[in-house]
Amino acid sequence: MSDRLPVLKTYKLFIGGAFPRSESGRVYEVEGANVALASRKDVRDAVQAARGAAPGWAKATAYNRGQVLYRLAELLETRATQLAAACSGADEVAAAVDRVVWYAGWTDKLAQVVGGANPVAGPYFDFTVPEPTGVVGIVAPAEPALLGLVSRLAPALAGGNVAVVLASQLHPLAAIELAECIATADVPAGVVNILTGDPAETAPWLASHMDVNAIDITGAPAALAADLERAAADNVKRVVRGPANGQRLADIEQLLELKTVWHPIGV
Amino acid sequence: MTDVVPAPTAWEYAPAPESRALVSIRPRYGLYIDGAWSEPAAGERFATIAPATEEHLAEIAQGGAEDVDRAVRAARSAFPAWSCLPGSERAKFLFRIARILQERAREFAVLESLDGGKPIKESRDVDVPLAAAHFFYYAGWADKLEYAFPGRPRPKPLGVAGQIIPWNFPLLMLAWKVAPALATGNTVVLKPAESTPLTALLFCDVLRQAGLPAGVVNVVTGDGRTGQALVAHEGVDKIAFTGSTEVGKAIQRALAGTGKRLTLELGGKGANIVFDDAALDQAVEGIVTGITFNQGHVCCAGSRLLVQESVAEQLLAKLRRRMETLRVGDPLDKNTDIGAINSAEQLARIKELVQSGRDDGATIWQPACVLPEQGFWFPPTVFTEVAQSHRIAQEEIFGPVLSVLTFRTAEEAVEKANNTPYGLSAGVWTEKGSRILWMAQRLRAGVVWANTFNRFDPTSPFGGYKESGFGREGGRHGLAAYLDLGEGADAGVGGLA
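C-alpha cells for the assembled complex are given below, as produced in the milestone run.
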C-alpha cells in the first residue's frame, strides 16, 4: 500500500463540450464527492448549446453518426475500470457498451425500416423519411446509474437528436464519467449536455422550455412526471418514456418525426 | 416570358346547382350509442345551419357527461368481441363501409356541402372519395397487422378510442380516425364538430347497413364540453384529436399523468415557396389551390407565399389575374370554386385577423366579387408587404387569406418558412430537382409538396412537427397510433409509438 495521496477529480457539468461549474456556484455532496448542483440558468445554457449543435448532428450522414456512436462504445470499453467504480460494476459497464453498439448500428437502418415509399393513387412519387425531433430533454433513471442513462440517451442520439440530460441525483458520478468519454469520442460539442443536481428542481424548467422539442420522463417519479407532462404541453412537446434498462426500436422511433414528400411524375 | 392575359369578362357561367333531392335531413337527431339512437340525458339541443344561407337544417343533441359515459361503456362492452374477431372479418366490415360510402357518395357530398359550406366539386371529388379510400386502405391492414412493424409481430389494440374531429373535413376526418381504429381492433366514441355533425350522423346509417356490431362505433354530438367529457373519461384509452393548437394543448395538459395515449393533428402556417426558375403558371395554380381549397379552412393550407424577389412582381400579377376568375358562391353549384365560410364565429376570426394585417401596415388586395347577402362569406384576399412579425404571417387564419413575403436565397427561404411555431406543411416550386430535395430536407414540416400542393392519399402518412402536433394519420404509420406494439409496458405516449 503506497502512502501517496491520490488527486481527486472535481465533478462538473457538461455543457457545449466543456465542463463548467454550475453558474449558481452550488454543489452537493454525494458518492464521496462535491457534485455540481445545476440551476435554471444551467438548463438554459445547456438547451442553447444543444440547439446550436442540432442542425449539424441531424445533417450528419447516418453512417457518420453510427461511426461516432461506435467510437463512444470503444471509449467506454477503455475506461471500463473507472466506469465500473461509478456504477454497480463491470457487468453494468459491459451491458452499457453493448447497448451503445446496438444503437450505433441502427442509425443507417432507420430510413428503410421506419420510412418508405407510398403508393399513392396518382402520378406522384411519394416517400416518407424519418427525421430527428430536435432537442430532447432526458430525465435519466435513478438506476442503473450508467446503463439507465445510456439506455435513454443512445436511442435519442441514434435518431439524430441532441440531448440535455438530467443525471440521476443519487448516482451522478457515472454520468460525468460518461460525459468524459463523450467529450473525447468525436461526438460534436453540444450534442450531449449533462447536468447533475436535483431533477425535481431542474426538470420543470426543461419541460417548459419553448426550445425543447421532446422530453423523456422515464426517470421522473410519478408526481413529478405528471407535472412535466403538463408543462410539456406549452409547446406540444413529445412526451416519451421507456424502460430504464431496455433496448427497443420504439425508443428511437418515439423521438423521430416523419416527413412525407410528394413530387409529380411527368416529362 | 408571356405577358399577363387579362381576365375573361365576356362570358359568364350559368348556374349548375346539384340537386338537394337525394338528401333527407331529419328535423332532429339523437345520439348514436350502442347501435341505437337515443336522446341526450339533459335534453339540451342546438341547431346546425347551412352557412351559405343560414338556413336551419336540424336540431342536434348536445351530449353531456352522462351521455359520453354511456357511449364509453357501450364501446367498452363491444371491445372484447370486436378485438377478438379475426382480422379478416374486421376487414370485411371495413370493406363494406367503404363500398356503401361509394354507393351513397353523392348523398354524402351534397350533405357535406350543405352543412359545411364547401364547394360541391370538392366534397364530391375529394372528401367523399378519399373517405371511402381510407376505409378500403385500412380494411386491407386489419388481417396483416403482424407485418406492419418489423420485430413486433404481436400488436394489440388499445381499447376504447375517443376521437374528436374538426369541422373543415367532417366525413374525411371521421374516416382518418375511424378506419385505422377499427382495423386495429379498437372501439370508438366519436365526437363530430358542433357546426358540421350531419355527415357523421348519416355515417351511422352506413354502419347500420354494414351490420357493424352495436357499440363498436358510437357518435356523440355536442360542443367543446362534450369533447372535454370524452377526454376526461377514465374509460377511454386513447384520444385522437384534430383541431386547433390551443385546444390540442389543453387536451395534452388534461391527459398529463393519466397514461392515456394521445395523437394530435393541430394547426399550421404552411409556406408555399416559389423559386425564380419555377413554372410560374403551374405555381399559380398551386398557390390558389393552397389557399382557397375549402375556403382556406385547411390546417395544411399554403397560407404564406414565399416568392423569390426576382419573380415576385410577375408572379403576383399572374396570381391576381387567376384569382379574379375564381367563382365565389353557392356551395352546391358545380362551378363554385370558393364556398361559404363555415360559421359566423370563423368569419369573425378571419375578419379580425385581416384587420390586424391592415393595421400592421400590410397591403391588401381582393378581386372584385359579389358576395351573397345571406350566409357567411369572405373574398379571396392577398396581403403583400407582409413582415414576419405580423400576426397574418404567424397565426393561422383558416380562411382564404394569403400572406406574401419575399426572399433572395434558398437559405433565407428555409429560415423564413421554418420561422413559426407550426410545422405541418410546405410547398416548393422549382424546376431544379436537387434544389427540391435540398429544400425538403431543411423544411421542418410533416408534408412537403414539390411542384404540387394539397395532395392526400390513404397510403401517405400525414401529421405535424413542432406545435402542429404528433402522430401520423394514413399509411402504415397511422396504425401505430392505435396499437400497443408490445415492446414492454410503456411503448411511449407521444411520437410514433
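Chain B is about 40% helix and 15% strand. Chain B has a mean pLDDT of 95. Further analysis is deferred to the final report.
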